[in-house]
Automatic annotation (TrEMBL):
NmrA-like domain sequence ranges: 4-91
Protein name as it appears in the record: NmrA-like domain-containing protein
PANTHER family membership: NAD(P)-BINDING DOMAIN-CONTAINING PROTEIN-RELATED (PTHR48079:SF6), PROTEIN YEEZ (PTHR48079)
GO CC annotations on file: cytoplasm
GO molecular function, one term: aldehyde dehydrogenase (NAD+) activity
One Pfam family here: NmrA
Coiled-coil positions: none
Superkingdom, natural source: Eukaryota
Amino acid sequence: MAATKTIFMTGATGYIGGAVLASLLERPDAQTFKIKALVRDAEKAKKLKEFGVETVVGSLDDVDLVEQEASEVDIVMAMADADHVASCQAILRGTKKHFEQTGVRTIYIHTSGMMTVADNARGLHANDAVWDDADADGLAALPFTQMHRPVDVTVVAGDVAGYVYTYIVLPGVLWGHAEHALATAGIAHRDSIVLPLFSKIAVARGRAGAVGAGANIHACIELGEQVDMYLRLLDAALRDPTAVPHGREGYYFGVSDEVSYYQITRAIGEAMVKLGRARDPAPAPLTKEEIDKYLWGTELLGANARCKATTAKALGWKPSKTTNDMLGTVEREVKALI
């Protein structure tokens, strides 16, 4: 019987983390993992225990708690806030303690995002640049001011220091409605961000809207296929953490296809017309006031982030869902809001 591996997980009640956790619990070898999740909601923590998951109630801001939990496990899977520097530093302090006490390097799988390679197109144009997760030099040269970079750089530094193996997962625009057991139990989030968000905007204003012309292009990935990549990465790292690209080379892009925001918002517009909530299917540019109200005052969702998953696919990962598959789910998103 395989030795039990301990996992400390953040983001376990979120859209990505909940799906990853649910898949781990459904595996034939689930009994070989002892999982503890950091959960803010005491009621959800109680429900998770019914699924055999140990819990600790707290948040990423409870850095002493995060450090302690990270010091006691073989694996850390961080799937919560990609920009929470303090919790990342706490995890690394914990993994360093673990190494000092055991001489064994922790496996640390961190979730970042494609916006780390985003440009400033503001929805006005596409970009021919396609980032490759195998281009370690190019990724290392990204400005520290790019979204997610402060945490990503901190994570990599831990690996370079030699006390932890780090692997950074960068999902594209995620889509798909979560139907796994933790979602149906009301523990984990069911919905992604981009499609529900732009559907909400369209319903509120009576017409689909995009940042600028929506000409920007972004990598996209279906939830289940993204989960498959996490689990392949975990399995590969458990077999031999040195045989899998890690640290400076350990970036894994979650992408199966790409989509323009015009395609997304046009599909929303067509659904709005079909459902009698709009007359014109064409998206109209969002005003500054609407961007402030719905998009946190930033035009970041007008950025290009085109990517190629060379390193991720070397795991044997074979995502197959297309842009058309993604757009085929749009009407459901709109219907859910009206």
